[in-house]
Structure formats: structure tokens, C-alpha cells
Specification:
The protein is α/β, with parallel strands linked by helices and 395 residues long. The chain has a five-stranded mixed beta sheet with strand order 8-7-13-9-10. The longest helix has 18 residues, at 330-347. The two termini are 38 Å apart. It has helices at residues 21-29, 33-43, 55-64, 85-92, 94-108, 125-141, 162-169, 198-210, 212-215, 249-256, 310-324, 330-347, 355-369, 373-388, 390-394; strands at residues 71-76, 112-117, 147-152, 193-197, 219-220, 223-224, 226-233, 239-244, 261-266, 272-275, 282-284, 293-295, 300-305. The chain contains 15 helices and 13 strands. The chain has three domains: 20-214, 3-Layer(aba) Sandwich (Rossmann fold), CATH 3.40.50.11540; 223-305, Roll (Ubiquitin-like (UB roll)), CATH 3.10.20; 310-393, de novo design (two linked rop proteins), CATH 1.20.1440. InterPro entries: NADH-UbQ_OxRdtase_51kDa_CS, Nuo51_FMN-bd, Nuo51_FMN-bd_sf, Nuop51_4Fe4S-bd, Nuop51_4Fe4S-bd_sf. Residues 311-356 form the NADH-ubiquinone oxidoreductase 51kDa subunit iron-sulphur binding domain. This is [NiFe] hydrogenase diaphorase moiety large subunit. One of its GO terms (molecular function) is FMN binding.
């Protein structure tokens, strides 16, 4: 543990093994659907995949949808660079994820669930299959007609986007759909679907076990509860840590930095880079509800010290985005290519420094016109790196 001025509170809700999945589900099943939905809503749990949509509301809207059948899908396509927490959850406490899926299934009236597993996590399949045998036995004992199967992805980053994930599962090219309609009314096979991140479902189990009141003892207003963070980069203690939402980036750096941290990438390649001068005023949470700047995150926290070139970091991100763009919409397909070509041209002196301003305007256009989160979020890392480390883009 660090001996610096302030230590972040380390929490152990997700990976705590002291529980009985069957008994907790039995107690939850004894409650009415309305009671459980209210518990979820009152907990303030928001999607831990990064989007931050209220989980209780998602379940409620899907339960109210009239069409059937309905589906529960666990999004385990953990493709965001710098994120590795979901893999650990599925390895160490898969029963919590499955229990969350079961509770959701009872509420919305679903008989079928799927774990959409990242293709690179194929090695987890045998272990998950064994866990599913135990889980289905519990479902039989509790008289819930609900079955979960595994769908293996093929390594496409874009399939982490929920509608592209549905397309992939339906045997089509993994491309985002137009919205609306939303998954709560038209998801997998065009039927009402709840799709939650691995960690979100694990936290649903936490709320079933401890209640909304205990969950809200952690975090801050509108950013309640704890969050798993994948900590990597220039840190002496890389790994996965469960911390409260609402912490400042400065607090995080005090605990995890190496004493020479110049920037932190919050939320992976699609997130925001926070420079040293903004550590104290930047908080991890949801927009508009915290003092200073609030930054939502799927959990990736990449730390960079003074030895790192932010130009090289941005070049790496843009190369990744260019490769992973599905190519469906022009703003993302062409925009990613032009951004990468643009910073290289400026670095080589083929374009003047003011060309960076044109590239920033291009990211503004991409944010507004790209069809899905991939093209829209390119602006996050590009603008935050260029605006704060412009000199490294030029010299």
C-alpha cells in the first residue's frame, strides 16, 4: 500500500466469495418483480461498460415490452484497449454474472440468455461450460425456465457495440444498427432484449445480496457504488482494483502513479486523456454530477509518465481505430484514415502546425455524424491529446 497523503478505499464486493448463489436467488425470486425493479432503480446502478445507462430502467422497459420472446445477453466482448476486468470476473466469480442474468430473466419473462464472449477468450469456454451445468441445476431447483448458452465472437472490436453484437449473433456482418428502435423493444432477432456488461450483472448480484441502501453508501450522487478498474502502464502496482466512483484523477494517481505521471487515459483508447494540470479537477463518474470535469469509464486506466511520447500514443490509437472501423459510415471510415495521415504529415513537417486545428474540426464532425460510438468517441482521445500535448504532435 502507498504511504502517500490519501489512500483510496479498496473494496471487495465483486470478488468476495462468501456467498451462496442459490440462497440469494431464492430470496430474490420470493420478491415481486416490481420490488426487485424498484431495488435496482433505487440502487442507482448504471451500466459499467461505459455508457452509464440506468440498469433498473433498462430492465423495467424490457419487462413492459409486449413482444416475445425476450432475451438476456451478457456482453463479454471486452475489446477496449487497456481493459481486462471482465475476463477476471468470468474466471473467478462467474456465478455472480449468471445469477444477475437469472434475476433479469425472471423480471422480464425471458427463457433464453447468452454470454457473448470475446473471441480471444475462447480459453474460458470449458470452465464456463462447467459453471453453466451447475447454474442450470439451480434453475431447475428454483423452477425457473431459463437457459444460458455461450456465443463466441470473432475478434471484432465493433461487436462490443450492442447492436453490432446482435447482428453478429444473427449471422450477419457485425455493423451497428440505426437507433431507435432500442434493444429494450427491438434487440436480438428484433425482440425485446436486455444487454448488460459483465460487471453490471455482477453488481446486480451485489445489490440482490446487500440491498440498494448498502450499495449507495459507496460513490457520490448519480455515480453510486463501486467500480472495477484495470490499471496498467507506468505504475508499480498494475492490476484490477475495485474502488468507489467519484474519486479524482489526482487521488488515483497518488495511489497508482510512479511519482512521475504526466497523463492518465481514462476509459481506454475511446476515452479521455487527462494531463497533470487537470488531475485535481477531473473525477471518475457521470457527466454533470460531480465537482469539476466528470469522466465516465468502462474501467480502463492507463498511466503515462514523462518518458512517454503522446504523439506515439495517439498514433497507436488512430491506427487501432482505422483497423477496427467497420467501414459502414463515411465519417468513421474516412475520418480515422485522415486523422492518422494528418498527424503523421504534421510530424514530418509536410503540413503546418495549424493543420491540427482542421483535424480537430474533423473530430467534431465525426462526433456528430458517425453512426455509432466508435466513430463518435475517436474525438475523445484525439482532442484531449492534441489540445494538451500539441507540442509533442509538432516537434
Amino acid at each position: 500500500m502507498t504511504t502517500k497523503m490519501k489512500q483510496l478505499k479498496r473494496i471487495d464486493l465483486i470478488f468476495n466469495h462468501e456467498d451462496d448463489c442459490k440462497e440469494i436467488l431464492k430470496k430474490s425470486f420470493a420478491r415481486t418483480n416490481e420490488e426487485v425493479i424498484n431495488e435496482m432503480v433505487n440502487s442507482g446502478l448504471k451500466g459499467r461498460g461505459g455508457a452509464g445507462f440506468p440498469t433498473g430502467l433498462k430492465w423495467k422497459l424490457t419487462a413492459e415490452a409486449e413482444d416475445s420472446p425476450k432475451y438476456v445477453i451478457c456482453n463479454a466482448d471486452e475489446g477496449e484497449p487497456g481493459t481486462f476486468k471482465d475476463r477476471e470476473i468470468l474466471t473467478r466469480v462467474p456465478h455472480k454474472v449468471l445469477a444477475g442474468m437469472a434475476m433479469c430473466a425472471k423480471i422480464i419473462g425471458s427463457r433464453q440468455g447468452y454470454i457473448y464472449l470475446r473471441g480471444e477468450y475462447k480459453f474460458l469456454v470449458p470452465q464456463l461450460r462447467e459453471e453453466l451445468v451447475k447454474f442450470h441445476q439451480i434453475m431447475d431447483e428454483l423452477n425457473l425456465d431459463f437457459e444460458v448458452d455461450i456465443f463466441l465472437g470473432s475478434g471484432a472490436y465493433i461487436c462490443g457495440e450492442e447492436s453490432a453484437l446482435f447482428e453478429s449473433m444473427e449471422g450477419k456482418r457485425g455493423e451497428p444498427r440505426n437507433k431507435p428502435p432500442y434493444p429494450t423493444e427491438c434487440g436480438y432477432l428484433n425482440k425485446p432484449t436486455v444487454i448488460n456488461n459483465v460487471e453490471t450483472l455482477a453488481h446486480s448480484y451485489t445489490i440482490m445480496k446487500y440491498g440498494a441502501k448498502k450499495f449507495r453508501e459507496l460513490g457520490v450522487k448519480d455515480s453510486w457504488g463501486s467500480k472495477l478498474f484495470s490499471v496498467s502502464g507506468d505504475t508499480p502496482i498494475p492490476g484490477i482494483y475495485e474502488l468507489e466512483l467519484g474519486m479524482s484523477v489526482q487521488d488515483f494517481v497518488d495511489d497508482f502513479g510512479d511519482g512521475d505521471t504526466k497523463a492518465v487515459q481514462v476509459g481506454g483508447a475511446s476515452g479521455f486523456l487527462v494531463p497533470r494540470k487537470r488531475f485535481a479537477k477531473s473525477h471518475i463518474g457521470y457527466q454533470g454530477k460531480l465537482t469539476g470535469v466528470s469522466l465516465p469509464t468502462g474501467g480502463s486506466m492507463m498511466i503515462f509518465n514523462s518518458s512517454r511520447s503522446m504523439y506515439n500514443v495517439l498514433d497507436n490509437y488512430l491506427d487501432f481505430f482505422q483497423e477496427e472501423s467497420c467501414g459502414q459510415c463515411t465519417p468513421c471510415r474516412v475520418g480515422c484514415q485522415q486523422l492518422l495521415k494528418g498527424i503523421k504529415a504534421v510530424k514530418r513537417g509536410e503540413k503546418p502546425a495549424v493543420y491540427l486545428d482542421k483535424l480537430l474540426k474533423l473530430t467534431d464532425t465525426m462526433r456528430l455524424t458517425a453512426k455509432c460510438g466508435l466513430g463518435q468517441s475517436v474525438a475523445n482521445s484525439f482532442s484531449s491529446i492534441v489540445e494538451n500535448f500539441r507540442e509533442e504532435m509538432i516537434y
